[in-house]
Design goal:
mainly alpha
């Protein structure tokens, strides 16, 4: 029984040391992480939520961190992924709300028909192209914001947008697709 109590005490000490080390690393990384969260969300409350989620995930995965010097990058990666997840969720929700609004009973039948054709055409695009077109054209995100959400390079986003528009124009029988200028 003494060994069990001693083993538990040793485990508690090591857990306390782990918590102290985490808090020490977090304190050093927090100013940069806070600025990053603000830059990603541009809203005080959303930044606080993102920071909170990031700290929680960093703590949950802290044991996987091998080099304490990588802690700031570790946290920024978590924050970037969490922000991208929020953006994807919001963009899908916004696109869904826009379609619902466009397809209301007040929408004239000829417009509803055009929207239905557009939805069917969008469904034929590869996922990344469809996402880029929907985020830019329907949700109003900038090219830089789309790059942050989708990853890759800015030229990659422009290419997906250009190819998606060209394919939509082909499917819908439209002569010219507008260019990406936002």
């Amino acid at each position: 029984m003494t060994e069990t109590v001693e083993t538990r005490a040793a485990g508690a000490v090591s857990e306390r040391g782990r918590e102290e080390r985490f808090l020490e690393l977090l304190e050093a990384a927090k100013p940069g992480l806070t600025r990053f969260c603000w830059a990603m969300t541009r809203d005080e409350q959303d930044a606080a939520d993102l920071l909170s989620d990031t700290v929680m995930q960093a703590w949950q995965n802290f044991s996987s961190l091998r080099d304490p010097r990588a802690f700031p990058k570790f946290c920024l990666t978590i924050a970037r992924r969490a922000a991208a997840s929020v953006w994807r969720r919001r963009s899908r929700q916004a696109a869904s709300e826009q379609w619902t609004e466009l397809l209301s009973d007040a929408t004239p039948p000829d417009v509803r028909s055009d929207i239905g054709r557009l939805q069917a055409a969008l469904a034929q695009l590869p996922r990344k192209q469809r996402e880029a077109v929907a985020l830019f054209e329907l949700s109003g995100f900038s090219l830089n914001e789309i790059q942050a959400m989708q990853g890759g390079s800015l030229s990659g986003v422009k290419s997906r947008l250009r190819r998606g528009r060209a394919k939509l124009a082909e499917i819908l029988g439209v002569e010219d697709a507008p260019s990406a200028e936002r």
